[in-house]
Design brief:
Number of helices: 7
Number of domains: 3
Strand content: under 5%
Radius of gyration: 34 Å
Helix content: 55-70%
Largest sheet: none
Distance between the termini: 57 Å
Length: 193
């Protein structure tokens, strides 16, 4: 029986240590899980991945009619040609926008300005909005998670505040009941002479 208790305590200590490690590195753990999930979707089982809705082109115009009888090498070359035909114009348009944006950034940096000189709608409205009056700032502060302090410390602080409130309520109730009985207001722990 004693051995089981010792083993159970060791198991609890191991779980506590693992929890503390994860809690201390909460942001890193989140980013690692996000990267893992992203990589799961990026690494598709197919070598020639068509994005939607072009995957329908692959299924109905390439895979079903050609894959079952064609050699793997020839099928791969046909897939590459179809992908180049479908994605080529799109990639040229993207490259043109990227080059234009890079030229704007280079021009802004040469003048000593910020990279992005476009003013967004929310930036324009910042002067017209009073977030403090609407209580928005308080709502954001209340919803913000506290990762600097341990959850147990925050819970103990909250319990202390609740205990103080409860203690004050009991003292007020005692004073009211004492006044109703004609005893006057006594402090807790005092004796009647």
């Amino acid at each position: 029986m004693a051995l089981q208790v010792v083993l159970l305590n060791i198991l609890i200590a191991l779980y506590n240590s693992a929890y503390e490690d994860i809690y201390d590195n909460a942001n890193d753990e989140f980013l690692a899980m996000l990267a893992h999930k992203t990589m799961m979707f990026v690494r598709a089982p197919d070598e020639n991945v068509f994005i939607a809705p072009f995957n329908l082109v692959e299924i109905f115009l390439i895979a079903i009619p050609l894959e079952w009888w064609m050699s793997k090498d020839l099928y791969g070359r046909i897939n590459d040609m179809v992908m180049a035909t479908i994605y080529g114009p799109l990639l040229v348009v993207i490259a043109w926008f990227e080059v234009r944006t890079a030229a704007d950034i280079r021009s802004n940096r040469s003048r000593g300005e910020q990279d992005d000189d476009t003013v967004e709608e929310w930036e324009q409205m910042a002067d017209h909005m009073d977030f403090e009056r609407d209580g928005w700032g308080k709502r954001v502060e209340a919803a913000k998670s506290n990762v600097e302090e341990e959850a147990a410390v925050l819970e103990v602080r909250k319990l202390r505040e609740d205990m103080e409130k409860l203690k004050n309520m009991i003292e007020q109730l005692h004073a009211v009941l004492g006044a109703a009985n004609g005893e006057g207001s006594r402090t807790p722990g005092s004796t009647v002479e």
